[in-house]
Queue: 4 jobs
Job 1
Amino acid sequence: MSMNLKVALFGIAREIVGQPTLEMVAPEGQSAQGLLQDLHARYPALARLSSLAVAVNNEYAADDTPLREHDEIALIPPVSGG
Amino acid sequence: MLRLRSAGRSFLLTHLLSSLIHIDLTDQPIDVPTALRSVEADGAGAINTFIGTVRNQSTGRPVVRLEYEAYDSMALHQLRKVAEQAAERWPMLQKVTVVHRKGTLYIGDVAVVVAVSTPHRAESFAACQYIIDTLKQVVTIWKKEFYEDGDVWVAAHP
């Protein structure tokens, strides 16, 4: 079984990927860490950032957080507000 | 009533927190006097404010302008959480306002205002510093610096 994920991109992650959202097919139960590994393989420049977090429904996700098809998922490169 | 916190968040507590916390993310110039007035409270003996402004250089390199990008829904949610954490840590907090700018800013423009009111001054300094420091660590806002000859996403690379 696989699921369709929509991943929102911001800042330098958006520039590296070249678009504001990514549609991805992932295995059922894919973890936040698994998603990051897939993305690092497709976009090696993402792996060179100081940090890259996954957010699920407006909260930072732990590595083992399982992703679900209708979650609001986003990639969070190093923040620099203030 | 704020002690209910430890037993889980009651409806009343949530209501209290939402009335004492004001959060905004705007693409318009921040009205600083309005932000300061928003934390006035009869129980306050101190109002403490942090105003973040755009500096003309970054590690010696002249800056022309900044662009702030936000993941709005998460930034607003995280900003509120930071303010709520401050209210839990300093239960005497009267009111908190945090306003962050997004879009294009030039030298001297106001990027962020944090204002808090407390009965006495020591807690007002501590709470204000906690909020701006934590904001910079967790809130989903990104700053790109533009120079005469290039641009950089701040903090993106080691």
Note: Chain A touches chain B at residues 8, 10-12, 15, 48-50, 55, 58-60, 72, 74, 76-82 (CB under 8 Å).
Job 2
Amino acid sequence: MSRDGGKVKLAVFKFSSCSGCQDRLIDLGENLLSLTEKVEVAYFLEASSRTDPGPYDVALIEGSISTPHDVELVKEIRKNSRIVITIGTCAVYGGIQALRNWMNYQEVVKQVYPRPEWINSLEKSTPVSDHIKVDYQVSGCPVNELQLFNILKQVLTGRRPYHRLESLCQECKRRGNACVMVSRGIPCLGPIMVEGCGALCPSYGRGCYGCFGPMIDPKPDALAMRLEEIGLPKEEVIIRLRGFTSWSDPIRRFLERYERE
Amino acid sequence: MNGSKSFEIKVGQLARVEGEGGVWVRVKDGKLDYVEVNIFEPPRFFEAFLRGRPYLEAPDITARICGICPIAYIFAACRAMEKILGIDVPEEIETLRKIAFYGEWIESHVLHFAFLHAPDFLGYHSALEMARDYPDFVKDAITVRSWGNRAIEITGGRAIHPISFRVGGLYRIIRREELELLARNYDEIRKKGERLLEFILNLDLPDIEYDMVIMSLKGDREYPVLKGVVANNLGWEFPEDSFEDNVIVEQKKYSTGLHYRLRNGRPYITGPIARFNLNYDLLAPEVRDILEKAGYRAPLKNTYQSIVARAAENLHAIIEIGRLIEEYSEPRAPYVETAIRAGEAAAIVEAPRGMLYHRYRIDERGKILYANIVPPTTQNYAAMEEDIFRVGNLILSGPPEKAQHIVETTIRNYDPCISCSVHTIKLRIIRE
């Protein structure tokens, strides 16, 4: 799939995030080394000081868009890349830092910086797809490295990547877990969240807190009703949904309605 | 370009550091007259959006500040909350925490000394390039690092942003059999850890000596990880709760990371080199033997030698994990339950990059009212700038590419994790 029949040029970019997702690439270790015959890492600041200005065949983007400079840069990346893949919950949904989107921005800056006027940031932290066309998305906080590797492999060999988007409950059932909500009354976001983590939290006896983001066609209304039924006050339901992927479309739209009700 | 001309070096984006940063050095009339370590990692405002969240979420949320050292964030938050609630976690849980914490040191240290830092001293752009000439070193590093990740995975559920740890303990008990999966290849990993250290000790590191002010936790009977008193090489010793009284903080116009100094105005270094120099006697004797055979011992003299401290701590961490697994017995309950009460407390842990400070205030329902987080990298900015002044002559005497390399290498000594540009304390106004 490279432009000239040679190696595929891969670039990795980071915006507002913790570096955890791009580190998953380094964690792929020998798997990644096996790709180096087909792939040239043209731009990956964390791993190499050699930078190639592009154009690139595949750009991986970690992090949310949260400064005016980010907006410019991400557009440049789009122009310069054939395929853009966003990796991780920050890039796909705006990340945990999108919690500020629900607050008064001026207050937020004042609480953290003695000189708020020196901070050049956007009021909202937003997904990359709000600013450019994105070809594929892999969410997760952090992304699951095998999911990431599989998608990379498929894209690099010119295939259309296939990626399951069913709910965490499906994965939980496959693992044979007893449902934490049904059996122990523990609030769990699993019914509306996408699988990918291995149903980790319920396997450890705690409810899912939704760090991978919503499944395809989620029903937050039904989940909120259920959470209220097991005794959670409405304000706690809101706090839980207003979590790691509160800025994803379905959850944000639901919350905006639910909070007014 | 020696001396007489004025010029500027701008390293727009620093490569091979976690997060994003830049350095601005200005030379006037042949002298370095201005240095800026510019952190343009976008601010993420953790301390603001933590307000109003339940106390139990502090470990999970603050873990997301750093994908390289989430464990440190998790345990700093846990310990601060446990102090507020009056929880004393049992020994068995402490053991699991240490295993995870040492796993994180391994994961983070190997990433830095083998993949990000060693290429500087051997003249490569990346570990991938280095792998062609030193395949064994790179392979050993990959294997050891995966083992560190595995230690976190087994205790925490996953290697990055683990989910099993909570205020008061864990969400479920970790079984002995699970830890034995890790112990299985301990011997092999330990050998590789020794080889990695020996490789680093053979590097040609600058031998210059200067006055460093270092600060870290000091252990009592053990090398400090989860707790200790704060100490420096000026003879200060104080408890973690009075950290904010002993430092001053300033915000720079050019940077989203706040800058810290000692209350007497001096920059200080936190991190492996500080821990190493202040706690050398508490390193595993096997580690000290290897160091001393190669002619190294505390105190290390300059920040370039921080790579030695990292490789030594890496082997120490491997040995400690081996010992802790043997010692481990399962706790009776996964976590300590307690009534919620209002209060405020601080905790410092030793993240791979140095002291990580968390302070929280919560109300009687357990809602967070206030949070202050001081990551290690922000504490090191002032020292980084001082270091660049120190190597000013080297910067001035070579061609620009060389100068750029020196600046980058000097910053990289600190293993800066710039994603941790969270930030608040007292204000000192900078007039420019």
Note: Confidence is low (pLDDT under 50) at residues 1-5, 419-432 of chain B.
Job 3
Amino acid sequence: MDYILSLLVFFPAVAGLFGFLIQRDAMRSYAITIAIIELIFSLALWANFDASNPFMQFTEHASIVPAFGINYLLGVDGISLFLIVLTTFMSLVGIISINPNTKDLKELLIALLFLEMTMVGVFVALDAILFYVFWELSLVPMLYIIGVWGAENRIYAAIKFFLYTFAGSLIMLVGMLVMAYFYFQATGVWTFSLLDWHMLQLPFDYQLWLFVAFFLGFAIKVPMFPFHTWLPYAHGQAPTVGSVILAAILLKMGTYGFVRYSLPLFPDASVYFLTPIAILSIIMIIYTAMVAFAQKDIKQLVAYSSISHMGVVVIGTFALNPEGITGSIFLMISHGIVSGALFLLVGVIYERRHTKKIAEFGGLASVMPRFALIFGIMMMASMGLPLTIGFVGEFLSLLGIYKVSELFAILSGTAVVVGVVYMLYAYKNAFFGEVTNEKNRGLKDLNGREYTTLIPLTLLVVFLGIYPKPILEPVDNSVKAMVSLMHQKALTEEAREVIPEIKSEEVK
Amino acid sequence: MLEAVNISFESLNMATLTPMLVAIVGALAILTIDLFKEEMDKTLYIVLTILFLVADLSTVLGQTMGERGFFDVMLIDGLAILAQIVLLIGSIIFIPLAFSSQRFHEYRYPEFFALFLFMTAGFQFMVATDNLILIFVGLETASLALYTLIVLHNKDKSFEAAIKYFTMGALAAGFFAFSGMIFYGLTGSVELFKIFEVLEARNFEPMILILTASVFMLASFGFKMAIVPFHTWGPDVYEGSSAALAGYISIVPKVAAFVVIMRIFEGLIASGIVWIEYIFYAIVVLTMTLANIWALVQKDVKRMLAYSSISHAGFVMAAIMIGTTQANSAIFVYWILFSFTNLGAFAMLWVSHKKDSNYHERFDHPFEKFSGMVKMSPLSAVLMGLFMLTLAGIPPFSIFWGKLYLVSSAVNAGYLVLAVIMVLNSAIAAYYYAKLIVYMFMKEPETGVDGSVYMMNASISLKVMLGIAAFFTALSIFIVNPVLELSDFFIYSSGF
């Protein structure tokens, strides 16, 4: 198990390179096989993961540029473990979901395999530059996927996606370089290793500036209000598989960045910026939910609702207590599964009707009952109905922020309410009532390929909704370790108050 | 009666001159061969040129640091050796582009290769001295050879380009002479180290004269390197030259110019005359930003690349202004990594060049030419895409590491605002590089174009060159450390 992380990162990419040799018709089977093997690797990682150890495991280390302190440093802890499993799982689901008749299928699958490498890489990298390499590299396959297989306005959407995230992350890069310089000044050693950086206590005003630099990079990716404008375009134009991966995993890279970088590196600044970020998140939650309500296009609706829920993730993270952070990490997982599933479902109906306008549908429940059932479950999960996966994370996040401020909790709780409104309204219009549009009358219900992708997702939604412990426990351990590190590092009185002290027996 | 001057041969320390002599002897040899037997095939001359350059390089590698020679005019320090290595490797990898499958006018003349070697020698003289007069001689030798090389392409556009370049070059030469004159008038010397000694002793007074001289010097090299606002000739010259030569112009002459600027301005910026730094700062920011914005609206890929190399030169100028050891080392790291990528990008244009006819009535490489390229010629599209991504600074490809080190040097020296401006410029630049990717991968092919146009001019050697460029670009992560250590070592040991 020594090199399992390298294997996880590079296996899909190497397989993708070999993919060029595969004959066109056999490519789909090849890609699915690779994705299954990759999923098995990640499950093996989970199986061998020591849940009681809150620190980095399976670490690998090699120097890339020793003269400048850039390392090949990998590791997982409870925070990243499930994001890795989510990545490999959703990649598999995404790859299966692709219609075999898609044009240039081979190229699309190869792009997806490369994308999988970059996504896993982001979650396992513990060196800032390595992280940045994977982070930026992930833009390229996505640019290609949106730009080639997207809808009519795809090129604009692809370029907008690319430039927005690229600009944001470049500012983050400057932040990383400054951080490395501070570390160099303090210790005389050049390093970009995150584990070393975690040990450094930065003066308060440095923290503020660096926090802002990192924040820009992550916030654009999440995407936080007011940087969210690229996402609806990207979703609107991307092919189904692109939207699935984008919503399920790429957005999580931003929130993961907050947890992995912003909080432990800059605890005081995190507390200092708690209120502004909470306000931004609340605006994001309420505003995008209202925008979602106004959408006539069902994919745009899902896209805006996905942004709205990411707001809950951010606010949970910035509750800065174990409940909030654990909740937001769980919510990342559940959001990945649920929004991925919703985009798949939209893709199902789009493939049949070639339209995404809600007004074109109506009465689908009588024509496609099974589709309607799964859609219904996913929608409930998205709204955060108890006993579905969506509830656990949302509840914990809101609980976390409640400890900081009751007002914030109440305001972000409206997300649930507004979510119910737009989701049920759309569901009513699309699925209930008489079949008003003749074109909808002969629609076929789900086929085998769609069952293969949707049923596992549905099972997960229900199972983890009822019994979230296998995920919550390791996450919680690592989060507690991180929070206690933050508490120890905090300089200001205020930060010490907001970031709770974790008693040592609680950190197992 | 005048006494005879006795100079022992040893005191000349001819070892310092050997590399340039090798190049010059090579040029003369090529001319001599032509005298004995005319109309030989270009391949003979190409291979000879490469061999002479390799010999030149090996003598450079044999030089010891800290030597002076030839009446103390030559100065071989770490900077000189490093710069010569970069210059020569640049020349060695560019000259094989002459192995094009189509026959071009310029390669029929052995003079082309002789001039090429003279030019290389000129650049070597520029970097291996701190004497203003020898810098001037080297500069003019190289420039005059270069004008001729451009015009040998023998098209209307090349004449325009050469004349434009020549006129601007003459103006720049005038500026250089004027600036050198002021320095000489102030200090009574043309040796840079003496100039700075005297200036320092008198506390950089009179300031106005030093400022004038610096501005003239800056303008002179601004013209040579096409830095905003002296860049106007740049894109036209790139367009008029063959793509192979344009690639060369974008890389090698600039190295020589960087070194001279470094030698001259390091002391001036440190002099405490804030105006020099302000002017430099303004020029750096303008060069990066404006060149990027102009590149956004270009319709021709070659012109776009021309503006892009201006912008990249602006990055390097920023490092010269910062002036720390790390920054100076970053210049070379950046430029070495940049040259492989730019070689690749221009070589891609070169292999798609068709003799005697433009693809389009106005431009030879409009973006439309590359529309849907991936459908017809997937491998070349992927290569070009790789070079574009690299130029945009996407990790882990070569330029990213240079940029990382350079921006880091800005951060470490306290130029935070400059660092932010630099990365924002990278973001702007990403747009026009992505534009070509969009054309290649996401648009439908234009009707009536088949894939053959992209490899029109390719030959085995050209493909090998492309392969080398792509290899170093894609796998640069493994060469960054040695390049960085090499560059650090030479720069550090020459005290910059």
Note: Chain B touches chain A at residues 389, 392, 394-396, 400-401, 404-405, 407-408, 411-412, 416, 419-420, 423-424, 426-427, 430-431, 434-435, 437-438, 441-443, 477, 480-481, 484-485, 488 (CB under 8 Å).
Job 4
Amino acid sequence: MTDKIRASFEKNKNGKAFIGFITAGDPDIDSTYEFILKMAEAGCDIIEIGIPFSDPVAEGAVIQNASVRALQAGTTTDMVFDMVAKVREKSDVTLCFMTYANLVFHYGYDKFFAKCKELDVSGIIIPDMPYEEKEEMESVSLKYDVNFISMVSPTSEDRVKMICSEAKGFIYVVSSMGVTGVRSSISTDLAPIIGHIREVTDVPCAIGFGISNPEQAKAMASLSDGAIVGSAIVRIVEKYGKEAGPYIYDFVKSMKDALLEA
Amino acid sequence: MNSKGRFGEFGGQYISETLMNELIRLEECYNEAKNDPSFNEEVQSLLNEYAGRPSRLYYAAKMTEDLGGAKIYLKREDLNHTGSHKLNNCIGQALLAKRMGKTRLIAETGAGQHGVATATVAALLGMECEIFMGKEDTIRQALNVYRMELLGAKVNAVTTGTMTLKDAVNDAMKEWSTRTEDTHYCLGSVMGPHPFPTIVRDFQAVISKEAKQQILEKEGKLPAAVIACVGGGSNAIGAFYNFIEDKDVQLIGCEAAGKGVDTDQNAATIATGTLGIFHGMKSLFCQNEYGQIAPVYSLSAGLDYPGIGPEHAYLNSIGRAQYVPVTDEEAVQAFEYLSRTEGIIPAIESSHAIAHAMKIAKDFSKDQSIIINVSGRGDKDVAAIARYRGVNLHD
């Protein structure tokens, strides 16, 4: 398969990608459609679409509350697929899904990833499916050319080699212990972890969890191949609701501009 | 498929990468500890001297006569220190945590029994303790909140989701993923990612180890059935475990059917759940057509959980154990019945098991016996049952 994810990094002069996250269905699915196009327009290289789950145990309050709003609005996995089909009429931006194992398992791995392939979705991020358990899902996702994105955390230590030697798409480096959410500073010394990853693989790695401003985005992208931003975008939706589009555009643009200087 | 911690297809380690090394260390440390005589002596010594084990296997003569069938024996976990079986597991895990160099315990709790047991052991061993409890449950079980605070624990009322046990587990897991260095998550049931279902089962297996010896002493033969209530399933697996190989012993788990399995207000996972992946394990869960975890209901805060431990899902799948739904109303009647008949006020959770025994006792002959695991005492439930019966209590 052509590696659309890798191309999303390489198309920028410095080889760095800005990865933005949005919860599908918050405040409603039509708004998400509009937000995704705005993010793409603002230069978001990869967009992670969160399919809302009732019990998002890897999320901090911001994304958890967004999931609650999305589910209250009646969002379902099928509605998310329909929305992505609409996006595809307008944009070929690189897309990944982020959700929890149960939603994909329950939908049926084959049925889910066949849909992904049809909609040109390049990757799947499942925070509750570590290396030890990924095979049941990855063996199916790869049949449909969907990369199972591996995560590395500050506590991975001796596991980095094992995880990264099989990594595809990009590697999601979790900046900090705990759950997603805006942090005033990222205290983990990530350089040794990135160095360790580089020894094992040339798959691009991007840092996420806690990145909320252009300075952090630039710093994290300097250290790695990109920055992943979720809660800071979702917070804009929380604040402006359906009217969030232009604010998301401005924010993503400022983050992308900073990242290009990394 | 990861073969680690599997019971058939159930179990596994569906958890964030951040916690994986901690789970691996926990498993290694546990395997070392369980083969270390000094660790086992330490556990046994606290179980005997502090918790008051072995717990009695009491022949309920009046109940037996009244029901007119099998001899009814009550395994009196309600007499365990802190009033339930929960302490068995907490003693084991807390000593294990100390061995790993941890100084802080966190735990989820539903009815508050596991929270109280964790707070108790933390006080005893001089460890810091923080408990996560759904806000709804802090109201249903206000006395237990105060009890935990009295024992020196901090209680966090969880305000997300249904504000019950499931949400308490979510927040305890989140807290653990933030801080593993000095903190052990003292999980209270046979659920969650491997190695918890195995560790908790091993520490609760003392129930059936004792019960088997006791019934053989009293009856000279094995019981016809062992009955226990099931939420996550820790008291049930403890009561079943040493009888699993004895194929003639029926193992019966009683699930909370709330207002009925034909309503949407129940927590009967085996009766109404489907296969899924949640809280670190592949097991059966109450969920909707898209895999969103369902808001479940039971009068009993301790059984108000949308999943079931993977070993129970397995025992059910191979037909070794059977699982039956028991409604709120049936449980309340059993609560009142045991109080009046034997002078024992059982926990509303345990009352689910008693209710089922009341239904089936007469199907057995008088030379057969049934063991009911009375997993906890009912003092904590008196106010809630009074409310259920429309009685106004005043202090």
Note: The first strand of chain A starts at residue 17 and ends at 23.
